[in-house]
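tl;dr need the bound structure. longer version: we got a ligand (succinic acid) that a collaborator sent over and nobodys looked at where it sits. i said id run it. heres the input, straight from their email, havent touched it
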Amino acid sequence: MFIKSFKFYKSKTTEPDFSEVLDFQDPNEKFVDKKRIEVKGNESYFSLISPKEWQCYEIKDRPGLIFIRNPFTPSGQRFWISRCLKDYPKSPNVVNLNPKQFSKEAINDWWNCFQTEKNDCERKRLKVSMRWTTLGYHHDWDTKVYSENMKNKFPQDLADLTKFFATTLGFENYSAEAAIVNYYPIGTTLAGHTDHSEANLDAPLFSFSFGQKAIFLLGGQSKDEKPSAMFLKSGDVVVMSKSSRLCYHAVPRVMSCELEPYNNFNSNEPEEKKCKIVNDCDDENFWTPFRHYLKDSRININIRQVLNKGQLEL
Ligand code: SIN
């Protein structure tokens, strides 16, 4: 059932029927419940709107799956998008680029190489070839085992952001220790899989999406179950906790989206609430290369806690 749905939404020969895809812009109450979150105090976090204004949902037959509809400010999205493109793929973080096909410079600092490349063909190749970078404990795609020998410092800003989401949603003692940043040019997909390599399978998995939209499938713990399909748009946050933590999921389609909040500053975001690093992203000279990249691409940051509480290493 999972594979059948994946193929259905992936189809390029005929445009699939999207009528069963949940759209949280206009959530169908038959399938979706509004989730009440108890917000303690007035605490806010840079790059986000106040948690009091977050639109949080649960899917009726998918316990543990929490969907937060874009809680990022437009400048906040710009900040995280620029981190994902300009900074996170830098060495010592690991990228998918093959040393037989790409220069050391590209493997060590992909964005800089892509931006300075003069040859259009090579620029295109650099753009579409970048598919992932790993942070913290590096995911080993062959063995699927994390190790202390394959680990770098996890970016503090991303760890703090994830902890803020975790604490606000009531997941205490969360520690972000591994992440995969996935880059999806329109037309690419991610096959069905479960994330079970972490020693800690109780801590939730956090997923932040930016850029063009995706269809995300969330199934059960076996591929026999028919998955729910939902649109993930720029800024949307998905939390896979409790019984959804080990469920099959996939991205069968990345497609253009009518909403591009990172290009739209008609928001009510008060100037004084922005901090300097987020403010710098409002500068159009700074933003133009990222705007171009995102025209036909999506980015997803997928964050996990690896260790159990009190465990210091693997
Ligand atoms: C993943 O499961 O690793 C990525 C999911 C997504 O791109 O939304």
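gonna send this back to them w/ a short note. The chain has one domain: 2-96+131-304.
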